[in-house]
Amino acid sequence: xxxxxxxxxxxxxxxxxxxxxxxxxxxxxxxxxxxxxxxxxxxxxxxxxxxxxxxxxxxxxxxxxxxxxxxxxxxxxxxxxxxxxxxxxxxxxxxxxxxxxxxxxxxxxxxxxxxxxxxxxxxxxxxxxxxxxxxxxxxxxxxxxxxxxxxxxxxxxxxxxxxxxxxxxxxxxxxxxxxxxxxxxxxxxxxxxxxxxxxxxxxxxxxxxxxxxxxxxxxxxxxxxxxxxxxxxxxxxxxxxxxxxxxxxxxxxxxxxxxxxxxxxxxxxxxxxxxxxxxxxxxxxxxxxxxxxxxxxxxxxxxxxxxxxxxxxxxxxxxxxxxxxxxxxxxxxxxxxxxxxxxxxxxxxxxxxxxxxxxxxxxxxxxxxxxxxxxxxxxxxxxxxxxxxxxxxxxxxxxxxxxxxxxxxxxxxxxxxxxxxxxxxxxxxxxxxxxxxxxxxxxxxxxxxxxxxxxxxxxxxxxxxxxxxxxxxxxxxxxxxxxxxxxxxxxxxxxxxxxxxxxxxxxxxxxxxxxxxxxxxxxxxxxxxxxxxxxxxxxxxxxxxxxxxxxxxxxxxxxxxxxxxxxxxxxxxxxxxxxxxxxxxxxxxxxxxxxxxxxxxxxxxxxxxxxxxxxxxxxxxxxxxxxxxxxxxxxxxxxxxxxxxxxxxxxxxxxxxxxxxxxxxxxxxxxxxxxxxxxxxxxxxxxxxxxxxxxxxxxxxxxxxxxxxxxxxxxxxxxxxxxxxxxxxxxxxxxxxxxxxxxxxxxxxxxxxxxxxxxxxxxxx
Length: 765
What we know:
Layout: H1 21-29, E1 69-71, E2 74-78, E3 83-94, E4 97-107, E5 113-122, E6 128-136, E7 142-151, E8 157-165, E9 171-179, E10 195-205, E11 210-214, E12 217-220, E13 224-227, E14 232-234, E15 242-243, E16 247-251, E17 255-267, E18 270-279, E19 285-293, E20 297-310, E21 321-335, E22 340-349, H2 354-357, E23 365-375, E24 379-390, E25 402-412, E26 421-432, E27 438-453, E28 459-474, H3 482-485, E29 489-503, E30 506-510, E31 513-526, E32 564-577, E33 580-591, E34 612-620, E35 624-632, E36 639-649, E37 654-662, E38 676-687, E39 691-700, E40 716-727, E41 731-740, E42 750-759
Antiparallel strand pairs: 1-3, 2-3, 3-4, 4-5, 5-6, 6-7, 7-8, 8-9, 9-10, 10-11, 10-12, 11-14, 12-13, 15-17, 16-17, 16-42, 17-18, 18-19, 19-20, 20-21, 21-22, 22-23, 23-24, 24-25, 25-26, 26-27, 27-28, 28-29, 29-31, 30-31, 31-32, 32-33, 33-34, 34-35, 35-36, 36-37, 37-38, 38-39, 39-40, 40-41, ...
């Protein structure tokens, strides 16, 4: 292997200059799949190893000329023609750029360089050019090329019969084609790409790194051909401005819908997608999404706007109102430094049926919030505000509170106190309603916890908590449920809680695996607390579950305190063996005082002895998952809560089933604790490598006795869906049928159809 190429004895000293990125990129742009049979084969196997051998270091740069490292098996000088010819595994290298060829000929008089024979160029981004022959200037910029194949590092392949560079530096490729599909399967066998783009001419913009197709057509499965005017792609695999593949769907509310989008990449960190929705039975609609990434964080804004007829929720269907209708959703997060951050989200709609009618969302409430946070090793501070817009029929918006401000401060002391950790909390909240009760709250809390392990292996945790609360409320009579109102005006209370929790893990072998049996007991004592004098805003949906059985306070919020003395016991069991894992727990609590409980009947906690709650989870590899949660009545052994979620199958073929039965037997006036029965089914079956069929259904099984308010009849299908899909490495295609059984205003019941089509690695969605 000779050293760097020496100067010719018959000519002034000249050094080969490094191949610039433009030369590689230009050649890279030529990786277009040819439209004619004579073009290079896209399925040609490509070497994955780096170019070798590694040449020795080049001589130092001379002025503006930057030398490159050079190696070859043989170098010949033709003094009469000023030609230098290198043969036999010729390698040129500069930084991360390299060229390999069988032969490189350099005419020192004209400066022309010709590489031929198994030419391979690799740029600093990992893009590769393969060709039979390429002409280079003395600056190593590509000139004429023939029979090109380029493998983009981002996954695409581009090939062409011929290429040439024009005066402005752009490269023109003729009879070209491109595909983003893999040309071999998982076993390394050749396969036809699902789609490709053929073009009469392709222009590569060296500076912008863009490839523009002229006379382009999309060929799918060698059957469908669609024109693609104005198609452009990026050699770096990034997004490029242009039209997106349209969506097609039909619905009973709007008829047939065609949604066409234009994507505009404003900058590398900002983009905008504008969409026009055209319907056969509704006015057109416009939507847009703006996204931005800044040095401090990221945010996005999405909006919809139309002027369409609207049927009032509680009105006559014959009476319609034509209004401006729309929806806005914006969210983002800014990280000012490692400790301080700001998070915000806005979701608002002009009316309660807009999102459902246009199949944007089925959420029953839209939350908007802003939160300033500071987090360090021992301190947490949150200053936030929340607003909710209800989408539920029969709920007054004026009864929905605005929470502003909500301040929560917590600090954990580094130094232990009496061997335990100490944490303090300060919290304040103001709730304001347009047509309801207003409540303000502030409290301070300090908690001390000590954890120790005994010589016998028991884990003992001792906890002490003190808290002081101040409340103020007005217009309490506007709250319909007496238990939630509290006394109007100023109220205060003090809370003190002491608890001892003991666990005893017992480890052993059984059934060819390992089991851990952990009995657990807990004693909690809290003096009598004037709960009913305090408004209840955040502790309404109380229910005994396995997740809160051993909580210091089984109420979900701060406004209610479970007072008295209680003893809780239970057992956890975990079993593991190869491929199997089983986890289960069961427990119950006993209140030791005779004082009447503020917990409503049916919550499982109203009596001295609670109901029995538990959870069982069984997993077999990633193929079977079964979770069962339950609550059993302590007297009648009736099942008050029965939740089953099961999944069987792989990622391609699976069945999911869910069943929920809440039989609390609670007064219907407590809207937060209604009984319900529901079944959920979903599944997908994959076949023929890339095809699958799928479906899902949600059925409300609640009867009139369980829920007299909404008039359930015992069998109400809510939504059903069936479809078929094709997906491989570079294309997605699906057809879906869905039926909605509930009508709300102008969101009608009926059948909907949707066709989804997406090409991967082309910038289409």
